[in-house]
Amino acid sequence: MNLVIPSEITDFHKFRTSVGTVLELLKYSKDNKNMEELVQMHQSKGNLEADAVQVINHFSNLKLNVEKKKGEISMWKAWEDQKMEGVMEGRREGALESKIQLVIKKISKGMSVSQIADILEEEEESVQRICDIAAGMAPNYDIVKIREELEREEKTA
Fold this sequence. Notes:
The protein has 7 helices and 2 strands. By secondary structure, the chain is mainly α. A two-stranded antiparallel ribbon has the order 1-2.
């Protein structure tokens, strides 16, 4: 039995099936720069079989959400979609952290929850949740930890 270690393979062209593409994707799945180059290089080759994408999802940190079309999947569109989803998630986190930072500034000025909500044009419940979490960290507020706690609460709700 031969052991195949994707990280040690240098020539993926010797594979005649999608196995080579799968191994190459696994090798670079944690390296966004090389993964981007790989996706651009393979876009012209067409789609991957659904089974190949399932293997990639199972053995990598990639969680590609793709639709099947005639047993094949547009791997390259799935990669672009996943990348865009990451960008959007980063924007959401940044917006929430900005909101938390504004609430903390208002707390530091001694403002009430209703005053803060009014000024920021936010729901009082939302501001109250931030204030409750932040109260346990005063006076050294950690915006990232507050955001993470809010997200944890949201997932369990």
